[in-house]
Amino acid sequence: MANLANVAVRNLRIELGTNTIIENLDLDVRGGEFVVLLGPSGCGKSTLLHSIAGLIDVTDGSIEIGGEDMTWADPKDRGIALVFQSYALYPTMNVERNLSFALRINGTPKPEIERRVKRAADMLQLEPLLKRKPAQLSGGQRQRVAIGRAIVREADVFLFDEPLSNLDAKLRTELRRELKQLHQQLGATMIYVTHDQVEAMTLATRMAVMKGGVIQQFGTPAEVYARPDNLFVATFLGAPPMNLLQGTLAGGEGKLWFRTPHIEVDVTRYAFRGTPDFTRPCVLGIRPEDVRVAGAVRTGDTAWQGRVTLVEPMGNHRVVWLEYHGVQIASIDQDKTPLVTDAAVPFGLDSAHASLFDEATGNRL
Fold this sequence. Notes:
Layout: E1 7-16, E2 19-29, E3 34-38, H1 45-53, E4 60-65, E5 68-69, E6 80-83, H2 95-105, H3 110-124, H4 139-151, E7 157-161, H5 169-186, E8 189-194, H6 197-203, E9 206-211, E10 214-219, H7 221-226, H8 231-236, E11 243-252, E12 255-259, E13 264-266, E14 282-286, E15 291-293, E16 303-313, E17 318-324, E18 327-333, E19 344-349, E20 355-358
Parallel strand pairs: 3-8, 3-9, 6-7, 7-8
Antiparallel strand pairs: 1-2, 1-4, 4-5, 9-10, 11-12, 11-14, 12-13, 14-20, 15-19, 16-17, 16-19, 17-18
Helix pairs in contact: 2-3, 2-4, 3-4
């Protein structure tokens, strides 16, 4: 069993050439957590992971692993195991020798090597494949071997750099489930980089959403999804992304309203982070699953008439796109009422799950 090592990144700054990739970044990963670094390409998530691994020199700041300063330690001395996007297996070695290679060159006793290889093979269902070479394996099997090679090191911290991105959708789903079960079995600290929000939402105990080398929000998947800190997080998470309506706030007689020229939403019970400013334009965000359409509109809902522009059947639900006074609104709908393009249908908004943002700064109100 790996030690429950924490990872603490403080005031991290990384420059590559004349470009600043990461600046003044802090990150605390508790021992035993599965933390996902999520963001678009070029946001700095892999750079951050590689700096923790010791593959990239930092310009400023510090990195602690297990309470020890590892800022300038060699990768081999950091107590980490790294799994890359590419499998990087030795083609002339069979699975068993690929798994044991690092242990053999480090002089690990043979009985200990056998114990660790058997443990990893049992966890990842690799026993029938131990005598095969990489060319005889599928993509999913090769990635299992790459993960197994990390497991046998019994590291304090496991680092994953987009390990599933080369696989097809079915294999990604299978290995995602296996990774989550593996974390439960090992109980080790894991940091995982991805641009795939489904991977982040399903794997993470906490997730850090990144943009431009800055962590925009760090919290549990449920917190980040339900209460995004800013418009970037709101629109990056979710498929379709959060609906956004531009308007202003107005209040009176104990009530507070969000208003556009055509929609008025009661936000009296909204938990503001400060005092509402009625003079500043704001944005109301609402997830597609909180937009009720046609037969799903409830009695007592304030309803408007939208025009159906597209219906996307998704099996157990459908995505309904509506046009309302020039604004496109998406609804995730499980109602079976038939809908046709250009039909006028009622829709309502569940304001209990709405988010409000300052239009100028993009920050949550």
